[in-house]
Design goal:
alpha/beta; Maf protein; 46% helix; EC 3.5.1.42
């Protein structure tokens, strides 16, 4: 496991690289964040020029916000919980449409120290990446992670992974 300084450096490097790649393509990115509380958006906007590729984000900590702003299904929230593949996919799709972006990342997880269960222990995080180009259908990739460490480390690892997923997707599309 990397140190806190290494994690912070990784986040900064990925945010810088993501900004450069988005700028080249004239793409916009947005986030829908629960367990990270806006930390992904903060990493993106720490990069000079971010207003060229970032218009806004939704911090949807409460399920009410997930439902009302991101169009997440009440039934899925009640039956599956906020930390589930279905919910994070809906968060990504909802914020993508709301912000009229090319890429959206959504995260929902259990950062701890409390709130974990046998099925979803502390450190469980779902990340969904949605992508759309013009009239093409939205493509959504969702992945489950099990991060280790305290609350700050779980959040930091989530931010680093989310930035990495976005960077990987952007680099797959030629300029």
């Amino acid at each position: 496991m990397s140190t806190d300084a290494q994690l912070a450096e990784q986040i900064e490097e990925r945010a810088q690289a993501l900004g450069q790649e988005l700028e080249k393509r004239h793409w916009k990115v947005t986030t829908a964040e629960s367990c990270t509380g806006g930390a992904i958006a903060a990493a993106i906007t720490a990069v000079a020029g971010a207003s060229n590729w970032f218009d806004g984000a939704v911090v949807s900590y409460a399920n009410r916000i997930k439902r009302n702003l991101l169009s997440v299904s009440r039934e899925d929230l009640e039956e599956l919980g906020a930390v589930s593949e279905e919910v994070v996919r809906q968060m990504a799709s909802g914020v993508l449409g709301l912000m009229d972006a090319n890429i959206a990342i959504a995260v929902s997880g259990i950062a701890g120290p409390d709130g974990g269960t046998d099925e979803k222990p502390v450190g469980t995080v779902w990340i969904a990446l949605a992508h759309s180009e013009g009239q093409e259908p939205v493509d959504i990739d969702a992945r489950r992670f099990q991060f280790e460490g305290d609350r700050a480390r779980v959040q930091g690892q989530t931010v680093a992974e989310a930035l990495g997923m976005m960077l990987e997707l952007v680099r797959e599309h030629p300029v």
